[in-house]
Specification:
Layout: H1 3-13, H2 17-24, H3 28-36, H4 43-55, H5 59-86
Helix pairs in contact: 1-3, 1-4, 2-3
Length: 88
């Protein structure tokens, strides 16, 4: 998958590089490298991006995707808080 295509998929979803990285389970720097053509995603990651490209055409899916990313961040924060509290 070419660099400009990756960036256009991310932008069509309305995500920044950090959010797109979280969605794919990679570091934001990895997304930056993909978009600059320094490295390429794996075939597996490319397949996910192709699915996201199709989903980006649906506003409801785009909005829900952002809600899921926000919820995942909240859940991760709660897990960390509970872990810290249990160590005291």
């Amino acid at each position: 998958m070419e660099a400009q295509m990756i960036k256009s998929i991310r932008e069509a979803l309305g995500l920044n590089q950090l959010q797109f990285a979280q969605l794919l389970g990679v570091h934001p720097i990895t997304v930056s490298k993909w978009e600059r053509g320094v490295t390429s995603p794996t075939d597996y990651q490319g397949a996910f991006m192709s699915q996201f490209q199709a989903a980006a055409k649906n506003k409801i899916v785009r909005d829900e995707l952002k809600n899921v990313l926000i919820a995942a961040g909240v859940i991760a924060a709660l897990v960390l808080l509970f872990q810290a509290a249990s160590k005291k």
